[in-house]
Amino acid sequence: MSRDPGRRRERLDRGIKARSDDIFAIASIRDLAYVLLPRLLAVLALLAFPLLEAVVSPYWQTVILNTLVIALLALSWDLLASAGLVSLGQSLFVGAGGYAAGFLNARLGLSPLWTIPLATVGGAAISTGLLFPLLRLRGIYFGMITFALPLLLMRVIETTGFLGGTEGLHGLTPLPGRTAELYLMTAAALVTIVAFRRLAATDYGLVFRAIRDDDRTVLAAGFHIQWRKAQAVLLAALPACFAGAFVTHRFQFVGMTAFALDYSILPLTSAVVGGAGSFLGAVMGSFILVPLSEVMREFGSLRVVLYSLMLLLFTVVLPEGIFRLLVRKYGQFERLAPLPEAGRGR
Amino acid sequence: MSESILASTLVYGFVNSVALMLTALGFSLTFGLSGVANFAHGGLYLLSGFLAWMLIHWLKLPFPLAALATVAAVGALGAVLYRVVLRPVRGIVLSEVISTFAVGVAIIELFRWKGFTTYDFSLPVFVEGGVEVFGVSLDWHRVCIVGIGLGLTALLWAFTRFTSTGLALRGMSQNESTALCLGIDSDWAAMLSLALGSALAAVAAIALLPLGIISINTGYDALLVALAVTVLGGLESTPGMMVGSFLVGYATVLTGNTIGPRWNEVVYLLAIVLVLGLKPSGLFGRSKELEDRV
């Protein structure tokens, strides 16, 4: 990168991007491919993955399952963040969904076919109810409360022995096989991505972003912002509680680990590494982070150090995240342009 | 008998409250002076404990020298933290929180990875022996803690009111643009407040860790305590922080004596959740802060 004082770097859209953005009625195959290919490839890769049992070892299938769990949590984080609610405790939702599924299965004897949907909705309702009185808070104060709440619930369960206490709930019904698990999670992730991206594009999603940017103005425009925020929490809690319920049935166990820091810091790091605000960034972040952390499993808790350092690095150095960077490289090129005369004096 | 229980609750509650205040002092000072919520506070607290231990046991330094070196080193680290990590994201509150949180977790988990998890890490007490206070036996170290806690608070109060540096820092926290006009460097002020806050975390660690062994989770607990106490009193308000620590301090001792010590953490967390939920500005917060929070 040259530091020529008379020139500046500028970014321009590639020709194919300009064409495929605007003139879609007469798009050529090449333009269509330019727009659709990256998306199709990603979706096909996800859908084809469970079929590759011959090639991919069960170990890596498990890794991808973990990745998808974290991806759902990161998507949920991103939706909350789009409404200005920055969560430092996604494990709250994992715990809510997980314990709801565990309770329904262990105490009422329902099958996973019922517990997972019920826990998704019920867990989301419970966690929204817990957060509802606290939704007036914003910024770091909401972050603090979400940091404290899962820890609080964990301690309460530990000290009261409620829902199995330190032992947790054991011997829950397993899910029918690895391929089914993979397809379930893949479907959940794809549905969530599409739904959230649609949502963000509607006026309804616009209100969320407006609350993030300037809640007073939204209030002045006649919206009930606390009610809107509660809706954002409920929507964001759905995939996260689903992930919690899924994890419960997968391990046939739910315990205090559901509220562990890992479920909070990994989605947060994924969203920051991939880039917040686009949902795809959050998913991409989890697909980078979780396999990477599996590779580093032998380093033990050094992994957590590395996530934290990545979180730090991306927050400070590349706040837009990897996804935005890639989109920019895909759609634009950079060149050095001469500065206009007026700018040279400085 | 019940009288002696009452006396011991009162005395130990007082010590406990001062200990909480000492833990939270650095966090509260940094937030009050520069508006940075230093979530690395717990990490720095733990780091100071282990650093002092390493200086004593590996370099064979005498305890007072090791303590001074630790405070100086951690203070300098706070300044570096500001220069390297916080300056690029200054003003973006959430990035500040996320990056300091990341630093704190990185420090704590680094020690866990390095195997600092056994029971042989502890710092020496300042003075051996004990004394009777109101019929309750109290060791000298706890008396020292009370002295350090109250002394430091008084010292800081005087520092921010009567020295030009302290006044400059307060001016910066009250009205940044006016302070800039008067020639106070914003970066310098924030760096100084971070350094001071970190040094205070080190002081707290050196004073409080001799009471037990240094375990990894002390780091998270210290952050939790700092959050609970400062949130309870109102984040920017030093008197609020003191009242907050006395409320939480007596509450934990009471629950510890009546229900069981396992409930201590529940008390901190409940304090955070209830206060933020019911009265977001804290007990002593002002309306100006309210605007930032709600």
What's this entry about, in short?
The complex is a heterodimer of chains A (346) and B (294). Chain A has 346 residues and is mainly alpha-helical.
Can you describe this structure?
- The complex is a heterodimer of chains A (346) and B (294).
- Chain A is built from 14 helices and 2 strands, in the order βααααααααααααααβ.
- Chain A has 346 residues and is mainly alpha-helical.
- Chain A has one domain (7-345): ABC transporter involved in vitamin B12 uptake, BtuC (Orthogonal Bundle), CATH 1.10.3470.
- Chain A has a two-stranded antiparallel ribbon with strand order 1-2.
- In chain A, α4 crosses α10 (225-251) and α11 crosses α12 (280-295).
- Chain A is globular, with a radius of gyration of 22 Å.
- Chain B is mainly alpha-helical.
- Chain B has one domain: ABC transporter involved in vitamin B12 uptake, BtuC (Orthogonal Bundle), CATH 1.10.3470.
- Helix content of chain B is 74%, strand content 3%.
- Chain B is built from 12 helices and 2 strands, in the order ααααββαααααααα.
- Chain B has helices at 2-34, 41-57, 63-86, 93-113, 140-162, 164-174, 176-181, 186-208, 218-233, 238-258, 264-278, 287-293, and strands at 130-133, 136-139.
- In chain B, α2 packs parallel to α4 (93-113).
- The longest helix of chain B has 33 residues, at 2-34.
- Chains A and B meet through α6, α11 and α13 of A and α4, α9 and α11 of B.
Key attributes of the depicted protein:
heterodimer; A: 346 residues; mainly alpha; ABC transporter involved in vitamin B12 uptake, BtuC; two-stranded antiparallel sheet; 14 helices; 2 strands; 68% helix; 4% strand; B: 294 residues; 3% strand
Number of domains of chain A: 1
CATH fold naming of chain A: ABC transporter involved in vitamin B12 uptake, BtuC
**Total of helices of chain B:** 12
Question: Whole-Å distance between the termini of chain A?
Answer: 20 Å
